[in-house]
Amino acid sequence: MPETRSHLALEVDNVAKAFVDRSWLPFKLPFAHPRAEKKVVAVDQVSLTVPRGQIYGVLGANGSGKSTLIRLFSTLLIPDSGSVSVFGFDVVADEMAVKRLINRVSVEAAFFRVLSPMENLLYAGRLYGMEAGAARVRIVEILGQLGIDSARLGEPLQKMSRGMQQKVAIARAFLTAPVLLLLDEPTTGLDPRSKREVQQFVLDLRERHDATVVLTTHDMDEADRLCDRIAVLHGGRIVAEDTPENLKRSHGDGAATTLEDVFMHLTGHSLDEELEPVAT
User: Fold this and answer.
1) Per the domain annotation, does 167 fall within a domain?
2) Pairing relationship of beta strands 212-216 and 55-59 according to DSSP bridges
3) Contact assessment for residue 178 and residue 136, using Cβ atoms and an 8 Å cutoff
């Protein structure tokens, strides 16, 4: 297991991230004056901690900032202010150490689509220094747990369904046994049976391999089933954070309260709504 410096898998302290938006301009300028630019705040002074071994959920509508958060955690973006640490390593100052500890699954996974699942995963394993024979055995095991028959391991990915491709993306992340796994809407596009297989595999990964998971999802039942704690993100800010049961108890009106009810109560929106980013 890679070296860690802290029992906290993730420490986020007053992190902010904004982007420049020139899409409103009537014509494109190669060098726009600063006063002609709008800043879109994606993440606004977010702080949170995730202890080792937890499954931590981030719930938010499209445009709420949750995917930006995941990119900040995974070193793909640099915070404008504040800090992010993974097991004690700063994502900016200790980028390479962080990359050895994490892996990420997003909605739009990148593959060599003319290659098969086995070829794609063997390539990923070699990048992480895995021996080919051991990687091959582990690949068959993981894909079997995700419901992919070994007879399909040689088919080109481009001939497979969107859901099947997403399973291969999840297998690629699990293959390297990361101690922090970042799952950005990992079950989007999967049928109910496949969702269950992925969800159970996430739980098994946490139990067997001491992995910590940060999960963003639109599926409230998934969040309720998997997550030890949940942060509700709205307008780039955390508006509530607690266990699923405590959130339902604090923001509901009875035993029948769901996380969907909690989300509506806290944000005034449904999770499926597309939110306009905050411009400044």
Assistant:
1) no
2) parallel
3) no
Three state DSSP letters for the chain: CCCCCCCEEEEEEEEEEEEEECCCCCCCCCCCCHHHCEEEEEEEEEEEEEECCCEEEEECCECCCHHHHHHHHCCCCCCCEEEEEECCEECCCCHHHHHHHEEEECCCCCCCCCCCHHHHHHHHHHHCCCCHHHHHHHHHHHHHHCCCCHHHCCCCHHHCCHHHHHHHHHHHHHHCCCCEEEEECCCCCCCHHHHHHHHHHHHHHHHHHCCEEEEECCCHHHHHHHCCEEEEEECCEEEEEECHHHHHHHHCCCCCCCHHHHHHHHHCCCCCCECCCEEC
Give the model confidence (pLDDT) of 24-82 as tens digits: 555 555 555 555 567 889 999 999 999 999 999 999 888 889 989 999 999 999 999 99
Q: Is the pTM of this model over 0.90?
A: no
Write the CATH number for 239. 3.40.50.300
* Short-list 85, 107, 79, 49, CA closest to 229: 49
Residue 73 · residue 84 · CB < 8 Å: yes
- Domain membership flag for residue 150: no
Residue 83 bridge partners (DSSP): 13
- Structural domain for 218, as ranges: 8-110+179-279
Q: Based on the structure, what is the number of domains in the chain? A: 1
Q: Residue 90: inside a domain, yes or no? A: yes
Instruction: Using the structure block, give the residue that is written with the tokens 């309720």.
Output: 224
Residue that wins the pLDDT comparison between 176 and 69? 69
Position 160 in a domain: no
